[in-house]
Design goal:
Helix content of chain B: 10-25%
CATH architecture of the largest domain in chain A: Alpha-Beta Complex
CATH class of chain B: Alpha Beta
Strand content of chain A: 15-25%
CATH topology of the largest domain in chain A: Naphthalene 1,2-dioxygenase Alpha Subunit, Chain A, domain 1
Oligomer: heterodimer
Number of domains of chain A: 2
Distance between the termini of chain B: 26 Å
Shape of chain B: globular
CATH architecture of chain B: Roll
CATH superfamily of the largest domain in chain A: Naphthalene 1,2-dioxygenase Alpha Subunit, Chain A, domain 1
CATH class of the largest domain in chain A: Alpha Beta
Strand content of chain B: 35-45%
Number of helices of chain B: 3
Shape of chain A: globular
Strand order of the largest sheet of chain A: 13-19-18-17-16-15-14-23-22
Radius of gyration of chain A: 22 Å
Radius of gyration of chain B: 16 Å
Largest sheet of chain B: 7 strands, mixed
């Protein structure tokens, strides 16, 4: 039995220890406590529109199937036959009436029930003893989350202010619905998975890691790299490990976040106005979608949806897809090209983030690598709801991530 | 089709593809960009059959974005290509097709060893099929479309910041 890891020592108020990114034992501990025992994001209901539609996802080392059932409900189950453990489904997506194991032909229904065993003469156990392992599943506005074990925290308590963040994303659609049908880019990082959510709500690196982008392209991000007091965006710790860069206070005009204007996307503006009324629609079109991480593995990346997948202590995969808006298909082409521009291995942004993360992974692998996490402690504010806000370049977001992580790893939440 | 194109023409098309590959390998960014036509599209889909108006690609650059890509590489701050990867691609199994409007389509398999030296010093292997649409230009040819079908484009792949 290995010694219990003291996360209170490794994660302090103003600093964290680099072994959190590089220690195999910590990685195994995370898989057990964060990915196999707590709520994780699986996928979106728009990916499985019809009965029998399914996608497979990897949560830690476990492959799961998210499938639309005959009664329209969504089930998430372990992708492993209960007979001899073979993977039931090798495809990443498709449509099936049931799942038949390729090894000995056992047949499972879309709800995971064992329906049929081939050559039944030699098998006299009750079929219901060998149904697939079904995860505890819940969803909010089509975002499906699951837990391998009986969760110690209710879904509502887990999501917390994350609901409002998801609302803001979905409400960018005049129908209030997003559609993830654009396909997934998957980018391999030779860096620990936690560097992805940390970096994605780090407002401090933009002027450095993305200097080449700022120099080469005139984009809305140019408004967020000037002198310290000219940066109007803010950073937020929403609690429960959910964090955000709120760019809205820094936008100069409506639709800056889309790199567009009301004239260029008139039909979208009209649809939004019709749904929400002019005053509210104008405000939403000014503020734009959230740039926020939902702990531990979902990133509402403005007009994209991103999933973080740990694949080892030293590697991770970032999934990304454009967030299409129901009721505004005229934006699809632009959203596709913006998604490719920002996210993925060939993108103007993420390719450089990967390189920087990989250099950090290497540098943190030896010695006593403490990482400072104090930025903004001198100026962040907290509202009556416990939500902390600070200057966009402050580490309020990453403290939010790490202190929630610490509580989960120490078993201090229930 | 190959058989009705002269050996002299297919040799010139092959020479052009080899030149383009060499400029990409060696990071001769401006000379590489100069090979493109005004309507150029540089495209790496996730997989064969993907529709770029419906599905996301690894990259789908029109001429403007391609120029931006080159501009970014030339800033000296594109960390994912600093320093530039060591690359020597091999191209083979050529097929040549005459298209409408005096254009040519050249298809070939490629094998691209990349020594990635920006972070973890990893030796990587890329492979797939190049599909070019070319037309004659005073000094040789120009590129209208370069489509790159990776054998593993649907799988997780590392940085593709270099010119593939």
């Amino acid at each position: 039995m290995p010694a219990k890891i003291d996360y209170h020592h490794l994660i302090q108020e103003d600093k964290i220890h680099g072994s959190l990114y590089t220690d195999e034992a910590i990685y195994e501990d995370e898989l057990e406590k964060l990915f196999y025992s707590s709520w994780v994001y699986i996928g979106h209901e728009s990916e499985i529109k019809k009965r029998g539609d399914y996608v497979t996802r990897d949560i830690g080392r476990s492959s799961v199937i998210m499938v639309r059932n005959k009664d329209e409900s969504v089930k998430v189950m372990v992708n492993r036959c209960q007979h001899r453990g073979n993977m039931l489904c090798n495809e990443s997506q498709g449509n099936k009436r049931n799942f038949t194991c390729p090894y000995h032909g056992w047949v499972f229904g879309l709800n995971g029930d064992l329906l049929d065993v081939s050559y039944p003469g030699g098998f006299d156990k009750p079929l219901e003893e060998l149904n697939l392992e079904v995860l505890v599943t819940d969803s909010y506005r089509g975002f499906v989350f699951a837990c391998f074990k009986k969760p110690t925290i209710s879904f509502d308590d887990y999501l917390g202010h994350g609901k409002a963040l998801i609302d803001r994303a979905c409400n960018m659609s005049p129908n209030g619905k997003i559609d993830l049908k654009g396909g997934w880019i998957r980018q391999h990082f030779d860096a620990n998975w936690k560097m992805l959510p940390e970096n994605d709500t780090d407002g401090y690196h933009v002027n450095y890691v993305h200097q080449s982008f700022v120099m080469a392209i005139d984009s809305q991000y140019g408004d967020f790299v000037g002198a310290e007091d000219s940066i109007k965006g803010v950073i937020k710790n929403w609690g429960n490990g959910h964090t955000e860069i709120d760019f809205a206070p820094g936008y100069k005009k409506m639709l800056d976040w889309l790199g567009s204007t009301p004239e260029k996307v008139k039909s979208y503006v009209d649809s939004m106005t019709k749904t929400y009324g002019k005053e509210k629609a104008d405000q939403m079109l000014y503020d734009g979608p959230p740039h926020a991480c939902i702990f531990p593995n979902l990133f509402l990346a403005e007009m994209n949806i991103v999933i973080f997948q740990p694949t080892g202590v030293n590697s991770a995969v970032q999934w990304s897809t454009p967030m299409f808006l129901e009721g505004a298909p005229e934006l699809d082409f632009k959203l596709l090209r913006q998604s490719e521009g920002a996210l993925g291995p060939a993108a103007f942004l993420l390719a450089d983030d990967a390189t920087i993360a990989e250099r950090a992974q290497k540098a943190l692998s030896a010695g006593t690598p403490w990482c400072d996490l104090s930025r903004g402690l001198n100026r962040e504010t907290e509202d009556s709801d416990g939500v902390k806000t600070s200057h966009m370049t402050d580490e309020t977001s990453n403290r939010g991530f790490w202190h929630h992580y610490r509580a989960l790893m120490m078993g201090e939440l229930s | 089709m190959s058989q009705i194109m002269s050996a002299e023409l297919t040799k010139r098309l092959e020479d052009f593809v080899i030149k383009e590959a060499k400029l990409a390998d060696e990071g001769e960014y401006q000379a590489w960009e100069d090979l493109w036509a005004d309507d150029g599209v540089y495209w790496v889909p996730l997989k064969e059959g993907d529709d770029p108006t419906q599905q996301v690609s690894h990259l789908y650059d029109n001429r403007t974005r391609l120029a931006t890509r080159i501009r970014q590489l030339k800033t000296g701050y594109r960390y994912s290509q600093m320093p530039i990867s060591g690359m020597r691609r091999v191209i083979s199994n050529y097929e040549f097709f005459a298209e409408a409007d005096g254009r040519y389509r050249v298809e070939a398999n490629f094998f691209l060893p990349e020594y990635s030296i920006q972070s973890i010093h990893d030796f990587r292997l890329w492979s797939g099929r190049y599909i070019y649409t070319l037309s004659p230009r005073d000094d040789g040819f120009q590129i209208h479309i370069k489509k790159v079908l990776l054998v593993n484009g649907s799988e997780p792949i590392p940085s593709l910041a270099f010119l593939i």
